[in-house]
Amino acid sequence: MEEIFEEYVTFHVTASDGSDVEMAVVDEFDFEDKHYVVGAVVTDDTIDDEGRYIYESIMDGDDFTVKKIAKEFDYRRIAQAYVDMDEDEE
Questions:
Q1: Average predicted confidence (pLDDT) for the chain
Q2: Alpha-helix runs per DSSP H in 4-58
Q3: pLDDT-derived band of residue 1, with 50, 70 and 90 as boundaries?
Q4: Is 15 exposed, middle or buried, given 0-12, 13-18 or 19+ CB atoms closer than 10 A?
Q5: From the CA atom positions of the chain, what is the Rg in Å?
Q6: What is the model's pTM?
Q7: Three-state DSSP class for 36?
Q8: What band does 4 get if pLDDT is binned at 50, 70 and 90?
Q9: Reduced to 3 states, what is the DSSP secondary structure of residue 84?
Q10: Tens of pLDDT along 14-47?
Q11: Exposed, middle or buried: residue 77 (CB in 10 Å: 0-12, 13-18, 19+)?
């Protein structure tokens, strides 16, 4: 039986302890005229099933950078919008 491996776009962020963390883009969405990516931690070429993190995505041609959503209030609002969108698709 042939195994099919999905390839993900990845990006790196700096954790609160200063370490570099590789993240895979597992979803993306638009909210209030901004684009966001949903990332999951990559460990040893495996995507961690625990936890998802949302970052603002800033496009630059074919490349992008991510920006942390600094205010907790904004993060919660954006996360709730993502949950609501996900529920609407079901």
A1: 88
A2: none
A3: very low
A4: exposed
A5: 14
A6: 0.84
A7: strand
A8: very low
A9: helix
A10: 988 999 999 999 999 999 999 999 999 998 888 8
A11: middle
* Token duo for residue 12: 């790196």
Cβ contacts of 36-39, under 8 Å, gap ≥ 24 = 36/78, 36/82, 37/11, 37/64, 37/66, 38/82, 39/11, 39/13, 39/66
What DSSP designation does 57 have? E
Query: What is the β-pairing status of strands 20-31 and 10-14?
Result: antiparallel
Domain ranges of the chain: 10-89
Which tokens go with 46?
A: 């495996």
Task: Give the count of beta carbons closer than 10 Å to the beta carbon of residue 59.
Answer: 9
